[in-house]
């Protein structure tokens, strides 16, 4: 298969590194010439139980690659529109575009350049931390779930082939008929973790050590769970099970900094609008109250605008 990964961030590098390490050629599309040049020279290093370095093809101009079988989008949610505008040369009649991004609503952006039957969505429990440019720590393993937006038999067949390829590269994968319950389960997990960690600086596991963060997590998840029911999403989990699932993820990834906290540390735009902000937006549409998610969204948005400013004791704080 001809595969191009969009975005050399933590997860993009992890997937590219995993595929190359297991003998599957892959290309990476970057938007920065300087970084793409360095990645071509130094390669991608993946560390974890094992350490390996690989040298995928890294390009800035998609015309250099031509139409692909698979285009896998791993950019941050806020960068999706810009990324999609660049992938035209990668798209042919047999191309499928797969989003493995956090949040919801990416299919509407992808539909601007490809037909619905060419769009697939997925979630993955694989975890990665970007230690340095092109160097990722494999922070956790888990299953990857894929599904098509339009229930097209040919797309499903192609997804089955991709799932087999990913599995052979150490990413156990499966294809499901309805991907949206899986997307919303992942969304609700992020709702209960990301915003609280970015506001407090706590790791995932530390969220469970304070009654305030435990209660705040429960309130945010409860709102999202009720919204999913109103939206007709069959999560297959009751409210208590959903809350326990979020807590179990915190325990399993106890030492991890959430992706949103990593964004704050590195001065990047967060994905709050596509996680807690998405819950608030859908709540308004469907008449479901989401005050906790709204407050979390506003607090993250405000702190981001202020640059997460903390005044020093030397500043004049007199009234």
| Binned strand content | 15-25%
CATH class category of the largest domain: Alpha Beta
Mean pLDDT, as a whole number?
93
> Based on the structure given, which CATH architecture of the largest domain is correct?
3-Layer(aba) Sandwich
> What order do the SSEs take from the amino end to the carboxyl end, as H and E?
EHEHEEEEHEHEEEEHEHHHHHH
Look at the structure and name the CATH superfamily of the largest domain. Answer: NAD(P)-binding Rossmann-like Domain
Query: How many extended strands?
Result: 12
Distance between the termini: 65 Å
In DSSP terms (H or I, runs of 4 or more residues), the helix count works out at: 11
The count of domains is 2
Question: Which regions have little confidence, pLDDT < 50, spanning 5+ residues?
Answer: none
Quickly give the structural class. alpha/beta
- Please give the radius of gyration in angstroms: 20 Å
> Which shape, going by the Cα principal axes?
globular
The CATH topology annotation of the largest domain reads as Rossmann fold
> Taking strands numbered 1, 2, ... along the chain, how are they ordered across the largest sheet?
5-2-1-6-7-8-11-12
Estimate percent helicity.
40-55%
Give a quick summary of the entry.
The chain is of the alpha/beta class and 319 residues long. 43% of the residues lie in helices and 16% in strands. The chain has an eight-stranded mixed beta sheet with strand order 5-2-1-6-7-8-11-12.
How would you describe this protein?
The structure is a single chain. By secondary structure, the protein is of the alpha/beta class. The chain folds into two domains: 3-177, Rossmann fold, CATH 3.40.50.720; 181-305, N-(1-d-carboxylethyl)-l-norvaline Dehydrogenase, domain 2 (Orthogonal Bundle). The chain is 43% helix and 16% strand. The protein is built from eleven helices and twelve strands. It has helices at residues 10-21, 33-42, 80-84, 106-110, 153-168, 180-200, 211-231, 239-252, 259-265, 276-286, 291-305, and strands at 3-6, 27-29, 44-47, 51-54, 57-59, 70-73, 96-99, 119-124, 127-132, 135-140, 144-148, 173-175. Helix 6 (180-200) crosses helix 8 (239-252), helix 7 crosses helix 8 (239-252) and helix 10 (276-286) packs across helix 11. The longest helix has 21 residues, at 180-200. It starts with a strand and ends in a 14-residue tail after the last helix.
């Amino acid at each position: 298969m001809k595969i191009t990964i969009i975005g050399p961030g933590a997860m993009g590098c992890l997937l590219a590194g995993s595929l190359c390490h297991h003998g599957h050629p892959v290309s990476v599309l970057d938007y920065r010439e300087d970084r793409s040049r360095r990645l071509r020279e130094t390669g991608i290093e993946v560390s974890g139980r094992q350490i390996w370095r690989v040298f995928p093809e890294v390009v800035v101009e998609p015309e250099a690659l031509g139409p692909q079988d698979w285009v896998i989008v791993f950019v941050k949610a806020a960068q999706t529109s810009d990324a999609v505008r660049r992938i035209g040369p990668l798209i042919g009649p047999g191309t499928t575009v797969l989003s493995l991004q956090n949040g919801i609503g990416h299919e509407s952006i992808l539909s601007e350049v490809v037909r619905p039957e060419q769009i697939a969505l997925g979630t993955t429990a694989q975890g990665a931390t970007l230690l340095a440019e092109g160097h990722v720590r494999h922070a956790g393993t888990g299953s990857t779930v894929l599904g098509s937006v339009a229930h097209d038999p040919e797309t499903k067949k192609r997804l089955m082939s991709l799932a087999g390829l990913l599995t052979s590269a150490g990413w156990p994968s499966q294809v499901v008929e309805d991907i949206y319950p899986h997307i919303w389960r992942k969304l609700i997990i992020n709702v209960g973790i990301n915003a609280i960690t970015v506001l407090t600086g706590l790791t995932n596991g530390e969220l469970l050590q304070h009654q305030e963060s435990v209660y705040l997590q429960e309130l945010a998840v409860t709102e999202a769970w009720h919204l999913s029911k109103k939206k007709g999403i069959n999560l297959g989990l009751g409210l208590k099970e959903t809350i326990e699932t979020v807590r179990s993820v915190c325990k399993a990834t106890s030492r991890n900094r959430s992706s949103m906290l990593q964004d704050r540390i590195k001065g990047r735009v967060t994905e709050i609008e596509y996680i807690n902000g998405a819950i608030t937006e859908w709540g308004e549409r469907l008449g479901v109250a989401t005050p906790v998610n709204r407050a979390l969204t506003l607090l993250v948005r405000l702190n981001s605008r202020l640059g997460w400013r903390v005044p020093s004791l030397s500043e004049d704080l007199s009234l």
